[in-house]
Amino acid sequence: MSDDRLPEADRASGAPHPRETSALLGQQTAEAAFLEAFNSNRLHHGWLVTGPRGVGKATLAWRIARFLLAQPLAEEGEMFGAPPAPDTLDVAADHPVTRRTLALSEPRLFLLRRAYDAKKDRISQDITVEEARKLKNFFAMSAADGGRRVVIVDAADELNTSAANALLKLLEEPPENAFLLLISHQPSRLLPTIRSRCRELRCAPLGPDDMSAALQQAGVDSEDLSPGLSELAAGSAGEALRLVNLGGMGVYHEILTLFSELPRVDRPRALKLAESCVGRTNEARFELVLGLMDLFLSRLARSGAGLPPATEAMSGEATLMARLAPGTLAARRWAELQQDLGARARHGKAVNLDPAALILDMVLKINETAATLAAQGEP
């Protein structure tokens, strides 16, 4: 099912794959909810694992998958008396299921994700119906082996319409002893019929201690850990790891410096930032800049609404936000601009607009809004 030489859509850059992560931090409530359902014999066939990106949803799904595949069916255990109820999802590292899932060679597990397109030398933009239709062969081939069968969908948000409908048919008429684990960052965007046929497991943002432990588990140097990093990552270890790997704290400093003189933006500096996002090799930086500009506007709007960030991401951030958003009028304008620029960014990416042009346009719109507020007496 896997070729180690190919990129994996469900692996964060510079991070272990969720199947390689043995410990899950900060999601005890979700784990307990699943164990309670298992031990009370109320195990639903469809599970929707939700929460912000990077908080451990995929790691939880893989833990559940290993657990289900390693646990004997009730009738198997009853030959020698009922086995004790498990109190953890842990499966030993030397268990055959653990070894096979790690190698993606477990015949009773199917991973549905965006496929690698060899012709275009890149990962597909969505999960296609061709990938979803492979589930039919999976269930046909694995049925003879007996036991449970598990499907992990990472992520369900990436299913195209045809693939989502194909998956819905399985949720409506699941094969015997089949369990589907759907990972979703934005469940509201899924088909209502898919959501209604799943039980939700909600994963929460990580607290500071769990965040630190998760990042160290992923190999992040303790010198890279800071309150500012945790603040920008908003409880997401995956986002914190992305910020570390892409130099996100430095990029956010560039953005704050650029906007520090609003409404007199430094155009050469703005152009330099925009041009740093051009080219295929800078696609990740382009996404990072877009995301951090959106986050800056969000924090700015919240600050003006009387909800300033609890922790400064950078020194001087709170002073800048107090100047640019001193009250509710400014807060409303910045919130409206955030929505407008978010829509512009999505459209620009959809039509392959030049990244430099898109970034520069966003910077100028931000400067224009700051100038308007200054003229109205709310700089």
Give an account of the 3D structure.
With 379 residues, this protein is of the alpha/beta class. It folds into two domains: 185 residues, P-loop containing nucleotide triphosphate hydrolases (Rossmann fold, 3-Layer(aba) Sandwich); 130 residues. 50% of the residues lie in helices and 8% in strands. The protein contains 16 helices and seven strands. The strands form two sheets. A five-stranded parallel beta sheet has the order 2-5-6-1-7, sandwiched between helices. α5 runs parallel beside α6, α12 runs antiparallel to α16 and α15 runs antiparallel to α16. The radius of gyration is 23 Å and the shape is elongated. The mean pLDDT is 90.
Note poorly predicted spans: none
Biggest beta-sheet profile: 5 strands, parallel
State the helix count: 16
Helical residue percent band: 40-55%
Overall pLDDT: 90
CATH class of the largest domain: Alpha Beta
Under CATH, the homologous superfamily of the largest domain reads: P-loop containing nucleotide triphosphate hydrolases
Structural class label: alpha/beta
User: Strand share of the residues?
Assistant: 5-15%
Elements, N to C (H/E): HEHHHEEEHEHEHEHHHHHHHHH
- What is the fold named in CATH at topology level of the largest domain? Rossmann fold
Number of domains: 2
Query: What is the β-strand count?
Result: 7
> Strand order within the widest sheet?
2-5-6-1-7
The rounded distance between the terminal residues' Cα atoms is: 57 Å
Radius of gyration: 23 Å
Q: Which architecture of the largest domain does the CATH hierarchy give at level 2?
A: 3-Layer(aba) Sandwich
Global morphology? elongated
